[in-house]
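Researcher: Structure for this, please.
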Amino acid sequence: MRETDFVSGFARGLRVIEAFGEAQPRLSIADAARITGLDRAAVRRSLLTLSELGYADYDGKFFTLTPKILRLGHAYLSATPLPTIVQPYLDQLSEKAGQSASASVLDGTEIVYVARASQRRVMSINLMPGSRLPAYCASMGRVLLASLSEAEARGILGRSELRANTPRTRTDPEELMTELRRVRDEGYAIIDQELELGLCSIAVPIANDRGQVVAALNIGAPAAHVPACEMAERYLPLLRETQAALRLVLR
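Model: Predicted structure, token format:
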């Protein structure tokens, strides 16, 4: 892309939108500048523009996003058939497993949930379509990273903040690369309380009818009920069944 084709003001506005989240639903100009690393003047212009267009509310100090912002995410969900195709299969999988099931895609260093069927809440955060998690320590992230070349996967790990969420979280890049090779060979990933204590999950890649990995599928369960060592025996056959069915319908 030519430098003249890059709209820096638009890019800054998107960074400001991304600064909002579950942990920071209300932001001052100073807050947004700190999170984005942008100067206060640029952040102020972006936030006031969002407010003027109805994408944010402003009380004189704090900005909060309005429901209108959902139009941006809805545009993606409407433009891609993946969530609509996957959802009924997730519903069936969740019902058979008696646990929550999800589908996600890779976006940079994170996974983004595109569909979910919830039996019970097994995490402290409320996961839903649009939720994001670090790819390196999530089961779906591991299978998606494993579907890439070694160089691509290593590059993403290099750009990730490899933070220890729990004492069990793997953060060493070489150890993670070794794990990705195992996932690539065996075709599934199991996370044993690396993302959050008390949560285990198992994931497989979702490929289309040409064999291209387009998403990931997982089942999450409380570690107290289903320890990691039992995840494959209990849930891998169900995941494989759903994986095969989806490959027939994804183009």
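Researcher: Any notable elements?
Model: The longest strand covers residues 213-222. Residues 228-249 form the longest helix (22 residues).
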